[in-house]
Specification:
With 197 residues, this protein is of the alpha+beta class. The chain folds into two domains: 40 residues, no CATH class; 148 residues, Alpha-Beta Complex (Aspartate Aminotransferase, domain 1), CATH 3.90.1150.10. It is built from eight helices and four strands. The protein has a four-stranded antiparallel sheet, covered by helices on one side. A hairpin with a 2-residue loop joins strand 1 and strand 2. Helix 3 packs parallel to helix 6, helix 5 crosses helix 6 and helix 5 packs across helix 7.
């Protein structure tokens, strides 16, 4: 909350008025200085504009993977807020695997992307809350070209694993399907009770 001193003193002029509005950071000179410094850096270093440029580079690099990966539908977003959407592949084996995963739960395929990105490549992404086949990528405004290349190479690696229906991604998917089906029926699976990763 920002207020002129005269307004602040009129609102909070008596002890019984102290709860008119409360804030953990109210009357915090250090917090205000940090906020102003952050706004100054955003403006001086043109980080919002930089975010638009770097975000577009990232989306273009992800889109360039489409011919190589049947699952990849599109990358879209604004600035460094990016969604990567997947869709049903055309080849028979992958299409059957896709359908099996989706029969168990709409969000499992995206989990099959998010989990190895974190475990294998140390990249945090999220499954979109309102669409099961979209993951969110939210890099910082200061993302470098090297960071973009690392992310795209990591995504390429994970999607390559997805193209082998007998590979590690589909084993993970099979475990997720078993867990989802057990959850629906109220039973636990051996994998759920013995594995933590």
């Amino acid at each position: 909350m920002i207020a002129r001193r005269s307004v602040y003193q009129k609102v909070y002029h008596r002890m019984d008025r102290c709860f008119v509005h409360s804030s953990s950071f109210g009357r915090n000179n250090l917090g205000m200085a940090v906020g102003l410094a952050t706004l100054h850096v955003l403006d001086q270093e043109k980080l919002v504009e930089r975010s638009a440029v770097q975000g577009q580079k990232l989306m273009d690099a992800i889109t360039a993977l489409k011919p190589k990966h049947e699952f990849l539908k599109e990358a879209r977003g604004k600035g460094c807020m990016i969604g990567i959407e997947f869709h049903e592949p055309k080849s028979f084996g992958l299409k059957m695997a896709w359908k099996a995963v989706h029969a168990a739960n709409d969000g499992l395929f995206a989990q099959m992307i998010v989990m190895p990105l974190l475990q294998k490549h140390r990249i945090i992404t999220q499954v979109s809350g309102n669409h099961g086949d979209v993951i969110r990528v939210l890099p910082p405004f200061i993302i470098t070209d090297e960071d973009i290349a690392y992310f795209v190479n990591s995504l390429d690696d994970v999607l390559t694993d997805c193209q082998n229906p007998l590979g590690p991604m589909w084993k993970l998917g099979a475990n997720l399907v078993r867990a989802a089906l057990a959850n629906k029926s109220g039973k636990s699976t051996p994998d759920e009770t013995t594995k933590t990763n």
